[in-house]
Structure formats: C-alpha cells, structure tokens
Amino acid sequence: MRLLHTSDWHLGRAFHRVNMLGAQAEFIGHLVATVRERAVDAVVVSGDVYDRAVPPLAAVELFDDALHRLAGLGVPTVMISGNHDSARRLGVGAGLIDRAGIHLRTDPAAAGTPVVLADAHGDVAFYGLPYLEPALVKDEFALPKAGHETVLAAAMDRVRADLAGRAPGTRSVVLAHAFVTGGEASDSERDITVGGVAAVPAGVFAGVDYVALGHLHGCQRISERVRYSGSPLAYSFSEAEHRKSMWLVDLDAEGAVTAERLDCPVPRPLARLRGTLEELLDDPALSRHEDAWVEATLTDAVRPADPMARIAARFPHTLSLVFAPDRAPDDPAVSYARRLAGRSDQQIAEDFVAHVRGAAPDDRETEVLRDAFDTVRADDAEREVAR
Q: What is the pairing mode between strands 270-275 and 257-263?
C-alpha cells in the first residue's frame, strides 16, 4: 500500500505580515496532483490542519476544497486533530464525511478503533491518535496523573489490543501528533510542555508498521518506521534551512517500509542575514537573497537611522528587522540573555525563586510550580475546546 504522509498545514496562518493562503492553496493543488500522479492509495494528515481553534472563513473554505478534491479522486484520507486545532470543530460531520472516504479522527476515546483499508495483500489498519492534552484526557484513559508519555502509552495499549484481535498479517499505521524524543524543533511550534516534559520516547509506538507523526515542522526520520513529514510551508525564519516535503511511503506485504521525500512548492526562499547595516547593503555575496523573504539582524553598536527603509531598498521582501548590537561578554544584557537561552518557563521560575530568596526551591515547591504551569496550560486548552 502506498501512503502519502503530510501534516501541519496550519491553514489560515500568516508568515509575519504575509498572507499565506495563496501558498497554502498551491500546496493543496500539489498534494492532489501528487496523489493522482504517484498512484497513492491513502493520504494521512497528522494534525494541525488549521492554525487556530477558530480559523478564518477563507481557511475553512480552502479545507473544504481540499476535502472535495481528495474525495473526488476516490483515494481514502485519514486525518487527526493537532494541538492547534479544535478537535470538536474539526470533527463536526465526521460520520457523514466518512462515507466519502475522508476519515476524521478527533476523539481520543476512538484511539483503538481503526480505519481499515485493503490492498492486494490484505488489510491495513489506520489508527488515528489526535493530539492528547494530558490534563483533558487522563480520565478517558483512567490515569490518576498524566503526562504526554503516559497518555500516549495508554492510547497505544488500545491500539495494540485491537491489532492483536485482527487477522494475522494485518499491517498497521498510527497517526499521532506529539514531540517524540530525537526530533528537532523550530520556533514555530506551540509549546506542549507538561510537568516539565514535552518529549515522549519513540518506543511508545512499538508494535506497529509505520508511525506518521505531526507537530514538528521539519521533515525528519526518527527511525525507519517513525517519521515526521514536517509542515509543507515555512512558518518562521528558524525554518530557513528546512527542505519542505512529504513522505511517499510504501508498505509491502510483510509491513516493511520504504519511503521517498517529495518536495513541496516554495513560494519564496528565506534568508537570515546578520551584520552591520553597511555590511548588509554593500556585500555583493548577498545578491542571491535580494528576492527572498529576509530576516535582517543588525549588529551596529548604535541603532542606524531609518534601518528598515534602507535595508528594504536592497532586500524589498524584508519581513523582520532585529537590532542585536555586538557587545562585550561581560555586558549585563548579554549575560541575562545567555541565562535565559534554551530554558523552559519552569526553569526560569525556579531561577527567579532562587534569585529573590537566595535558595533554590525544594522538591515540594518545585512540584507546586510545575502544577501551576500545568493548570494554566490545561485552562488554556479547555478554553480552546469551549470556543
């Protein structure tokens, strides 16, 4: 069976101030053409179809167009909700849409109920695990206290239990939206940290033939059977070096995996430039970036006059201008930035307690801080669901 694995469309999202709807529509056209030209048997979309819980009308219309075009090809599509989606909204009408071959999986309770498709070698069971917010789904899985690993492990227990009851030789595909250990993140993914831990080990998915992951925006291979497709478009300058693509995956009769990366259309290249304003304006080696979307970081000791107008004269598609003067290592601004770099909210809060009190929080206080951050995250998630 030949699968096309994609995720993280983020329909309705802008890139800085640029409306990306046209580029997203171009990607949908590319997706449909690929399904047709490469004889794809099933499409899997691993979450974050939309960029927010209540997407703009134009994004909903584009999604509707995508569903009609995929259904028109007669090729089954399996989709799950991601952490940006409203699972309830995305799942509206799922029962009716299912009859057209578009299978929306947004309910955690159905984690062990697959979409079963068949090819010449037998059945392939597709299990959709929508994004599992631990605080909201722990009761569904009868867990006293939950993190990302525990809720995913519980969902996968249901998957393996169902698979064990199926005919020998049934192949299996799991769609999941999570941060799996070994994956490389970018700046454009929403933080899903719970209890100080965001990542889950790839071993939680043991026992299935292919795991189609969503959430991280870079296309990457965790293992031969566990892969991220990444987002089809760049949504932050941290993705400037990404090669945007999808996975074309073949499952043979025994469930062995072969995969090929298929490039996605690039609306405009990205460039991250750094230097003084005069260096950026005068360096002939930068000519190749004059048609790119540009993030320019100025290192001048003193902020230059009219920097955006001057940089845009050479790089007319400049979208971001950052002022980061070169400073001595002992400069207070440098040392503060270094202390914060790469630290989680939990770690910053613990550092603050240590700074104002003169002693780091003890184990009980650390747990109180962790519970507070988890409560805020859960409240935010519940508000998204209620909207």
A: unpaired
- What is the reported pTM? 0.84
Q: How far apart are CA 279 and CA 318, in angstroms?
A: 16
**Interior CA angle at 244 toward 241 and 246, to 5°?**
145
- Give the contacts of 332 (CB within 8 A, at least 6 positions apart): none
What radius of gyration do the chain's Cα atoms show?
Answer: 23
CB 21 within 8 A of CB 58: yes
Rounded Cα distance between 212 and 151, Å, is 18
The answer to whether residues 204 and 153 touch, using CB atoms and an 8 Å cutoff, is yes
Instruction: Write down how long the chain is.
Output: 387
3-state secondary structure (DSSP) of residue 182: coil
**Counting Cβ atoms within 10 Å, is residue 2 exposed (0-12), middle (13-18) or buried (19+)?**
middle
Sequence-distant (≥ 6) Cβ neighbours of residue 241 within 8 angstroms: none
Place of tokens 């996968």: 156
Q: What is the distance of C-alpha 130 from the center of its chain?
A: 13
Q: What is the DSSP string of 25-59?
A: HHHHHHHHHHHHHTT-SEEEEES--BSSSS--HHH
Q: How far apart are CA 246 and CA 46, in angstroms?
A: 12
**Span 241-266, average pLDDT:** 97
CB 89 within 8 A of CB 53: yes
Q: Is 199 in contact with 232 (CB distance < 8 Å)?
A: no
Residue-level pLDDT at 348: 84
For 2-37, the pLDDT digits (tens) are 999 999 999 999 999 899 999 999 999 999 999 999
CA–CA separation, 31 vs 22, rounded Å? 14
21-38 exposure pattern, b = at least 16 Cβ within 10 A, e = fewer? bebbbbbbebbbebbeee
Token output for 104: 């929306």
Question: Other CB atoms closer than 10 Å to residue 276's CB: what's the count?
Answer: 15
Instruction: Identify which of 132, 70, 127, 128 has the alpha carbon closest to the alpha carbon of residue 101.
Output: 70
Structure token pair of residue 248:
């074309």
DSSP state of 337: H
